[in-house]
From TrEMBL:
One of its GO terms (molecular function) is tryptophan synthase activity. Pathway: Amino-acid biosynthesis; L-tryptophan biosynthesis; L-tryptophan from chorismate: step 5/5. PANTHER family: TRYPTOPHAN SYNTHASE ALPHA CHAIN, CHLOROPLASTIC (PTHR43406:SF1), TRYPTOPHAN SYNTHASE, ALPHA CHAIN (PTHR43406). The gene is trpA. Transmembrane segments: none annotated. It is an enzyme of class 4 (lyase). It comes from Rhodopirellula maiorica SM1. This is Tryptophan synthase alpha chain.
């Protein structure tokens, strides 16, 4: 049983929902990213998604796109994510996954990427641009290493394809709440609950909802529907607006605490 499997088993037993912040590695510096990461668990996060900056955005909205570009302009390299993972391994016990383009994984080599990620303390990867038709080989590599391959389902994904994606995924399914790119929103689709409930009947995997969660109110609305919530742009924006590392840690920790309170109350 992977670390993510263990986490969701524990959360379900205690009737809690997972809170997963997203942070961009290297924005505005890898030192700030590391400091924020070290404080997330105490603030109320259950696991963390670390974004690997990439020059060609896949489904990222303007806030995350800008954070990726800032990190790349600062000289970010993939090894920075792995080095940071090793530095925090003894202190950060919550599961950590990378959000990474498959083109990066392919360039490194599937087995090599998984090996390096595991050595750095990561337990899985969210791969938004991996087609289900091409996922079988990488899914097998991940399965053999007990490394979770987390894939995305969108509102426009045909139902038969949703099932195929679920069958080649592990850890949890990332359910994209809206059609379009990442970003904070005040309204979400009215049929979201029905769509997630249908998918829940097709798989035993936990379903985590991301895209569009702007604050405690949105989180409270979605908490009863999902097994977990992923919050990205709202956190990345707070880091971008911060005045130094200490302020970034404070702003993110306070916001994550507010999300935690809202999710638990819901």
């Amino acid at each position: 049983m992977s670390a993510i499997d263990q986490l969701f088993t524990q959360l379900r037993a205690s009737k809690k929902k997972a809170l997963m912040p997203f942070i961009t590695a290297g924005d505005p510096s890898i030192e700030t990213t590391e400091a924020v990461l070290r404080n997330l668990s105490a603030a109320g996060a259950d696991l963390c998604e670390v974004g690997v900056p990439y020059s060609d955005p896949i489904a990222d909205g303007p806030v995350i796109q800008a954070s990726y570009q800032r990190a790349l302009d600062q000289g970010f390299r993939l090894q920075s994510v792995f080095d940071m993972g090793k530095r925090v391994a003894s202190d950060v016990t919550m599961p950590r996954v990378t959000m990474v383009s498959y083109s990066i994984i392919h360039r490194v080599g599937t087995e090599a990427y998984v090996k390096r990620a595991i050595e750095a303390g990561y337990v899985g990867a969210i791969v938004p641009d991996l087609l289900v038709e091409e996922a079988e080989a990488f899914s097998k590599v991940c399965e053999d290493a007990d490394f979770n391959l987390i894939q995305l389902v969108t509102p426009t994904t045909p139902k038969e394809r949703q099932v195929r994606i679920a069958n080649s995924s592990s850890g949890f399914l990332y359910y994209v709440s809206v059609t379009g790119i990442t970003g904070e929103r005040t309204k979400l689709p009215p049929d979201l609950q029905e769509s997630v409930q249908w998918l829940r009947g097709q798989t035993d995997l936990p379903i985590c909802i991301g895209f569009g969660i702007s604050g405690p109110e949105t989180a409270a609305t979605l908490a009863p529907v999902a097994d977990g919530l992923i919050v990205g742009s709202a956190i990345v924006r707070r880091i971008a607006e911060s005045n130094g590392t200490e302020d970034a840690v404070k702003k993110v920790s306070e916001f994550v605490g507010e999300l935690r309170t809202a999710i638990d109350a819901a």
